[in-house]
Write a structure and sequence with these properties.
Layout: E1 3-7, E2 10-12, E3 18-25, E4 34-39, E5 45-51, E6 58-60, E7 68-73, E8 78-83, E9 92-98, E10 109-110, E11 114-118
Parallel strand pairs: 2-11
Antiparallel strand pairs: 1-3, 3-8, 4-5, 4-9, 5-6, 7-8, 9-10, 9-11
């Protein structure tokens, strides 16, 4: 069955960095766009970034531009999100998802999320 498993979250100080990973299985990872979303405490789901199936096309929410980098390794069926210059507003549960209609936040599959907490 389709499975997406995020990892790499944790507690980091403001200004720090984290690299999230999402291991995919149960489908042909290399054929699909992949996305990262996040949900901060008490707030709605927010799209963060997406990447094309071949990794060439990338797009970011304004909140992520210049600080976050999405990438993928199709040989390893893994999606990544490098997050730099983190601040408290980045504290959220981060999800990876496959084959999404981003405007309506509908995706074929979702992971369970990995928690990122930015605090001193």
């Amino acid at each position: 069955q389709v499975q997406l498993v995020e990892s790499g979250g944790g507690l980091v100080q403001p200004g720090g960095s984290l690299r999230l990973s999402c291991a995919a299985s149960g489908f042909t990872f290399s054929r699909y766009y992949m996305s990262w979303f996040r949900q901060a405490p008490g707030k709605g789901l927010e799209w963060v970034s997406k990447i094309s199936s071949d990794g060439q096309d990338k797009d970011y929410a304004d909140s992520a531009k210049g600080r976050f980098t999405i990438s993928r390794d199709n040989a390893k069926n893994t999606l990544y999100l490098q997050m730099n210059t983190l601040n408290a507003e980045d504290t959220a549960l981060y999800y990876c998802a496959s084959n999404c209609n981003v405007p309506i936040m509908t995706c074929d599959a979702w992971g369970l999320g990995t928690q990122v907490t930015v605090s001193s």
